[in-house]
Amino acid sequence: MFTSRLTIFTLLTFLAGVNAGCATCPETLDADGVATYELVSSYVKSENGFTECSYTDKKGDEVTCEYADNGLLEDGDSKCPGLSRKDDYGC
Description:
Elements: H1 2-18, E1 22-23, E2 28-31, E3 34-44, E4 51-56, E5 62-67, E6 73-76, E7 86-87
Antiparallel strand pairs: 1-7, 2-3, 3-4, 4-5, 5-6
């Protein structure tokens, strides 16, 4: 009985991890209602699971935004939106 409970718990834990989504970076950032920054790169940090998004504008100014896996802004420039879309299919 104990073994079957442990097996079910392990399976549910695995499935929850597989289905965990992550934040996705918007393609552009708006400043004053105009899309001025374009996404250059994005990646998921292995140490904390945060998604880091890097943007540049035509002048070469850079903006970096860091989102938790639930889509909330953890760190970044004031131009970063406070919420990012979440990809429910995993990172």
